[in-house]
Amino acid sequence: MSYTKDEVIAKIIAVLKNCDGKRNPSVIMQKLNWNKDTISEICALFNVGKFSEILSQIPQIKMEKTEHGTTYVQLVPDTEHTQLNAKQEESQMAETTKHHDRIATLKNALGEGLYEKDEALRLALLAAIAGESIFFLGAPGCAKSMLARRIAKAFKADGDGSLQYFETLLNQFSTPEDVFGNISLKALNGEGESGKEEYRRLTENMLPEADIAFLDEIWKASPAILNTLLTIINERKFHNGSKVQDVPLKALLAASNELPAKNRGLDALYDRFIIRLPIGFIQNEDSFFDMVEGSSSEFELSDEIKKLQISNAELEDWKTQIDAVQLSEEAREVISAIRKELTPQNEPAQNEPAQNKPAQNKPLSEEEKAAESIKLFLRKNPKVWNAWFLLGWALRRMGRWEDARSSFLKTFELLENSEISDKEPLCNVYNELAICLMELKLFGEAEKYLINALSLDSENIKIISNLGTLALKQGKQEEAEAFFRTVLEINPDDKIALSVLGK
Questions:
Q1: DSSP β-bridge partners for residue 133
Q2: How far is CA 267 from CA 55, 172, 173, 226, 305, in A?
Q3: For the stretch 469-503, what's the b/e string if a residue is b when 16 or more beta carbons lie within 10 angstroms of its beta carbon?
Q4: Which terminus of the chain faces fewer neighbouring Cβ atoms within 10 Å, N or C?
Q5: Is the domain defined by 5-76 classed in CATH 2.60.40?
Q6: Nearest Cα to Cα of residue 178 among 212, 139, 222
Q7: Per-residue pLDDT at 20 exceeds 90
């Protein structure tokens, strides 16, 4: 029979209340009438080896040893117990306040010059302390890499060494060598430590030896990289030839301007990112000009703030304390409410055939989930242009062309009013609008937006390629080929252009 810690403590106290005076722990154990298996189970619950050690963990119980070494236990008098509890609560509160103030001060220091990213910084720091991974969804230029570098500065290495930080921008041509290290030629030739010919990577300064890692545009990486990455996140292990290498990774931060594509087997890896956060550009004009006028020198923590950095030893100690945390009834109720909200609505009732469930209760895709989250955000923040852009992007991925078009038009409207100097966001909106219009067979409007986009960025391969695709849809073969030849002049390896031109 399974018990919670609270249930065990309540039963022990109930037995002691029915006892007069002091009692030996073995007597208490007999009166509880638990068998050996139950005792073993309860000792494991309290992470101790003996029943008497459980008694020593209960504040309401006082333990005494006689001069002959015999141990006796009894209940602490109510007044003494109240005082004891008060002192314990005061001590715990002081310790909690100390940690809270320290982390808050550290977070504020890390956020210096990082505008409108407080939530992202706070959640990223939480993920790192908890040893979990976080994913940022947002367009280029949203300070995602800066966030990762700041998080790395929250920690310090053991001894005199320096914290290992790894960062890379992934693309379709990235190889495992770019992330996990080059192949050791010496090991291949049998000149390594083992003296045998073996396949090994040189992992120094690469992800397998990193404390904090940031992978930008993660979903563009090859399956070889992503599959290895999954093992590292799950097990904190890297299989390097015949050896299994421990990975000191505290946290993995990843980013992309898109969600993982369907049918690529990325669901398992995406699921490991416990926190997934949309992140956008600066919206407040004052914040923007503060950034422009701020210092351009490299960010460094002061000596005083460095004293607040978190060590490996502290992290290990915190993990032990976290394991001992028990949820209050209020916390349980909140978590239950959240779980009910998140539970997929497609699960059929018991004994009810699944085919009888209404069609609207089918599971939401990742794009649908993202769209719903963004809609909730927009209800409170209707003037955040990049949220409208992300909503349009998610709707386009779902094939909801008209809805996506409306979102992109709203993005365009807000961008015009914001008077931002960066042309890239506007260029991206033009392009996305054109894609929707092409699917709606509004070719004239699509061409107008693509030409507007091209006027902002004359060598944007994506836009030129879409102009070629538009020409093909209209049966203008020669015009299409001219666009794709232009693409190859900029990038001779462009696969779409090569395919269209038969090269």
A1: 273
A2: 46, 18, 22, 11, 39
A3: bbbbebeeeeebbebbebbbeeeeebeebeebeee
A4: N
A5: no
A6: 222
A7: no
In tens, the pLDDT along 102-117 reads: 888 999 999 988 888 8
Q: Which CATH number fits domain 366-500: 3.10.105.10, 1.20.1080.10, 1.25.40.10, 1.10.150.120?
A: 1.25.40.10
Among candidate residues 439, 429, 441, the one with its CA nearest the CA of residue 393:
429
Cα–Cα nearest to 314, from 95, 148, 105:
95
- DSSP, res 201: B
Q: How far apart are CA 177 and CA 495, in angstroms?
A: 23
Mean pLDDT calculated for residue range 200-220: 93
Give me the residues paired with residue 75 across strands. Answer: 61
pLDDT at 352: 36
Task: Identify the CA nearest to 219 among candidates 262, 271, 256.
Answer: 256
Q: What is the chain's Cα-based Rg? A: 30
Q: 272 phi and psi, to 5 degrees? A: -75, -15
Q: Where does CATH 3.30.420 sit in the chain? A: 5-76
Q: Is 70 helix (H, G, I), strand (E, B) or coil?
A: coil
CATH 3.90.226.10 is held by the domain 117-281+306-318: no
pLDDT tens by residue, 440-449: 889 989 999 9
What is the reported pLDDT for 13? 84
Q: What percent of the chain has pLDDT over 70?
A: 85
Residue pair 470/439 in contact (Cβ under 8 Å)? The answer is: no
Cα gap 217→40, rounded to integer Å: 50
Average pLDDT over residues 409-421: 76
The pTM for the full model equals: 0.52
Check pLDDT > 60 for residue 349: no
- Identify any residues that bridge with 73 across adjacent strands, giving them in sequence order: 23, 63
Nearest to 75, CA basis, from 151, 8, 23 = 23
Range 402-418 average pLDDT:
84
The most confident of the ranges 39-43, 234-238, 369-373, 498-502 is: 234-238
Separation of alpha carbons 174 and 225, rounded Å: 8
Round to whole Å and give the CA distance between 245 and 196. Answer: 18
CB neighbour list of residue 103: distance below 8 Å, 6 or more residues apart:
125
Q: What are the residue ranges of CATH 3.40.50.300 in the chain?
A: 117-281+306-318
Amino acid code (one letter) for 467: L
Q: For residue 350, what pLDDT is reported?
A: 37
CATH 1.25.40.10 range(s) for the chain read 366-500
148 contact partners, CB below 8 Å, separation of at least 6: 124, 167, 212, 214, 253, 255
**Three-class SS of residue 265?**
coil
Per-residue confidence (pLDDT) for residue 69, from 0 to 100: 67
Tokens representing residue 16 in the block: 């002691």
